[in-house]
Amino acid sequence: MLSGSDGVALQGVELRHLRYFVAVADAGTFTHAAERMFIAQPTLSQQIRRLEQMVGTPLLRRLREGVRLTDAGTVLLEESRAVLSRTTVWHTVAVMDRIFPSGPDPAA
Length: 108
Description:
Elements: E1 2-3, E2 9-10, H1 15-27, H2 30-37, H3 41-55, E3 60-63, E4 66-69, H4 71-99
Antiparallel strand pairs: 1-2, 3-4
Helix pairs in contact: 1-2, 1-3, 1-4, 2-3
């Protein structure tokens, strides 16, 4: 379960939802985002609709020429980028810890 900056819990939201949302926002269309994410466009669209249901508000305005963020979408995009950035750092630290485990120095 993720929590927004206002402390509101976002039950059911997973990192993949945030990755998909950022991809759509960056690409400007579901088709281009799906291509970049290597998933089917209908699957991506369903996942974004599910995310909108979980947060309780539309995040995107679907237009003929692509998508535009709603005010809520703009806020979630900023928060999503921050969360995804932190998880990348955490992953890097975990990998480095496996490569260079800390602990007692065997030479001491």
